[in-house]
Amino acid sequence: MTSHLAVLHRQYLDLVLSGEKTIESRLTKTRRAPFGKIATGDTIYFKQSSGPIRAVATAGKVVTLTDLNPQRVCEIRDQYNDQIGGNRAAWERRMQSKYGTLIWIENVIPTGEGPVVPPLFGAAWVCNPQERAVTSTR
């Protein structure tokens, strides 16, 4: 099993912790993690953007999408947004996406524990964060 570090804005992380957000979606113009890198049973640590790790969960069903276009993005929004929790602006920013990953989130546990990684410089997803973990010299 692989582990992952997903960075979310506070509003979405709060929805994960409350159980309202049960699908994490990543829609992008290029193939980037977690596209093709995550599988059912993998561990996901959820880190708040510019903040701490706040939850750990298990990846349930994973769907990888290719050849997206605005019409398909609208179909995804219409079918899954109740579980994704995206607002209008978030969906507008994703209309030109070509690739996507939908991850059903299971077994969410609030935590402040997880891999300690160096600054991500805008990266929103890290595969195998333990490999980037900062080892303490204290």
What do these coordinates show?
The chain has 138 residues and is of the alpha+beta class. The chain has one domain (3-126): Hypothetical protein (Archaeosine Trna-guanine Transglycosylase, Chain: A, domain 4, Roll), CATH 2.30.130.30. It has helices spanning 10-18, 70-84, 88-93; strands at 3-8, 23-28, 43-48, 53-65, 99-110, 125-127. The protein is globular and about 40 Å long. The relative contact order is 0.27.
In short:
The chain has 138 residues and is α+β, with helices and mostly antiparallel strands. It has helices at 10-18, 70-84, 88-93; strands spanning 3-8, 23-28, 43-48, 53-65, 99-110, 125-127. A hairpin with a 4-residue loop joins strand 3 and strand 4 (53-65).
Secondary structure elements and pairings:
Layout: E1 3-8, H1 10-18, E2 23-28, E3 43-48, E4 53-65, H2 70-84, H3 88-93, E5 99-110, E6 125-127
Parallel strand pairs: 1-3
Antiparallel strand pairs: 1-6, 2-5, 3-4, 4-5
List keywords for this structure.
6 strands, globular, alpha+beta, 3 helices, 6-stranded mixed beta sheet, 138 residues, Archaeosine Trna-guanine Transglycosylase, Chain: A, domain 4
CATH topology call:
Archaeosine Trna-guanine Transglycosylase, Chain: A, domain 4
Could you give the distance between the termini? Answer: 30 Å
**Which homologous superfamily in CATH is the superfamily?**
Hypothetical protein
What CATH architecture do you see?
A: Roll
**Amount of helix:** 10-25%
